[in-house]
Amino acid sequence: MPPQTQTQRRRRTGNNDDANEARRHRQSRRKNESDDSEASEEDQDGDGDGDGDVDMERTGDGTEDQLVKKLVRYALACEYGRIPIKRDGIRDKVLGSNARSFKRVFEGAQAQLQQVFGMEMVELPIKEKRTLKEKQKANARKAASQTSTSSRQYVLVSTLPPEYKSQSIIAPSRIPSTSEEAAYVGFYTMIVSLIVLNGGELSDTKLRRYLTRLNAGQNLPMDKTDNVLQKIVKQGYVDKVVERSDGDEDAVTWCIGSRGRVEVPPESIAAVITEVWGELPDDFHKKLHRSLGIQEPERANDESAIPEE
Amino acid sequence: MEDDDISHPYDNSHRAFLQAFMARGTMTFNQARPILAAIFTAHDQDEYRSGNREEEPIATRLGEVSRDDFDSYVSAVSAAISPFDMEIRATTHQVTKERVYSLINTTSDAMTQLATLRSAEEMAFVRRVIDAMFDQYNTPRMEVLCIDGMQANKLRAAPPRSSNNNNNEDAENGNGESQTQALKGLKSSEVEQVLRGLVDEGWFERSRAGFYSLSPRALTELRQWLVDAYNEGDAGEGEWQRVKFCEACREIVTVGQRCAERDCCVRLHDICEDAFWRTRRERKCPRCSAEWTGKHYVGERAVTETESYQRGRRRSGKSGGRSSLADSIMDAEEGDEE
User: Fold this and answer.
1) Is A176 in CB contact (< 8 Å) with chain B?
2) Which of A17, A216, B140, B258 has the fewest CB atoms within 10 Å, i.e. the most exposed one?
3) CATH for A16-42+54-144, among 2.60.120.10, 3.40.1360.10, 1.10.8.60, 1.10.10.1200?
4) Tens of pLDDT, residues B231-259
């Protein structure tokens, strides 16, 4: 690499930072409320400074650039392994003793991700409380404190317009191999679609019946079906809810996980169904949109979903 | 943010190209052409829809994507990601002579990146394989710099005596250090799987004769790391080093030719040879003036061109004992040396 490109790049970083500065000021007002809880928490792990102003000056320019860069790299690394980007992880691995600058570093990284990579961090929805026990626990907690309105976890998604998302451009990742990745994406998209079409949850027996019909009851191209199911649960595409009941067998229900909700939106599901259906009946799209609740942004859990039985 | 000193604009088409690159890890010009054609088509459609463009766009054909287009996208993207310690670097494939562009990390945590999806045991195994390529099977006598499946299989577990006393351990590898002692190693079937995975991901290449070597991508990404790990920093000029560079192009040589003089360090890629000799009056080593035979090899031919390998191959037919054959030749040669 010729040396002059190096200096050019450095300059570019500087400029971006100026732009970020302006953006930051614009956004700071809006984000103020949500950040209150943040600040009080950070005070507790106190880095001894006491005074906020001093801290701000110390983490100016140079350091903050570094932190933004670290956060971008951290976000990309997490996504590489389909691990959610956790706030706590950001605090430990990126910010270290600069925990106070979370908001500014986060916004800086967000701007860089969009500008350079065409991606952004999207917060995952909070895990729904599915079983009775979980609900009770959550209620008890809610009474005690007002927090937990955010999942504190993020995933990276593309911000490019749909034209750019065609398969000839964004091919399945080569990791672990192109065909395996393609099969994996196809599998979880199918499972998520099945769950959504069944009104947001699917009993274990029913899922197994679907899998058998897909000739995926035991094995998939990459691994045993059960191992792959385990993986899509671990990566948050689906949730496996086990309700223990004394005497009887445990009731297992499959629901959409938080990553599945973000990465497999109703539009993708609609595309899968249209593709699988073949010859489309007249009112297909109307019915489809109703089933998926595409019209209303709120996911429909009401009678518009296909009834269970 | 799209202002001044970036010479070209940086827009969604660049971002899409970057994302395409990230999914693939490496690209050649020929691989990139259909991708860029699709990106240009998408770009035109996007412009048309947002009203920045009058006439309805027609799809860009593959033939319309020029080398200049590719170069300009590569350099724009590379400049944009360099503040994040990433870069697109080109290297020439040592055998096919094709330019291979790899998206790499320029900070020294390349090994960590390679590790993200692998277990500690698998990583330890990969490390043993690379050690074998650059240490065990890379001696002044025989610079094989690759390893066949059978030999790799022998590395599935750490050798009984603690092998971690080598001075190659780097700081970035330190995280696995304490666990390494407790690792049990892999099963034979897992060895195969890991090797296949490394080939699929583009870190290793497998030759027709069944040898695994580092791919252009791995050589680009690990270049500095390999030098730090395997070369002696305080070795004198002209002293034998494990990682050597081509006399012509200055890239690492893992497949190529060597000077007939065993202690001379001059190495040359097969693909650089023609241009190199054209500028010289005689085919002699530029350092020690020994006659350049072109029959002294670096890489798998150091084994496969030996008489005993050829003989053994004729005897045992195409398959079967070939792997163990390579092993016995490499080991025998090493024995000679002691």
Assistant:
1) yes
2) B140
3) 1.10.10.1200
4) 988 877 778 899 999 999 999 999 999 99
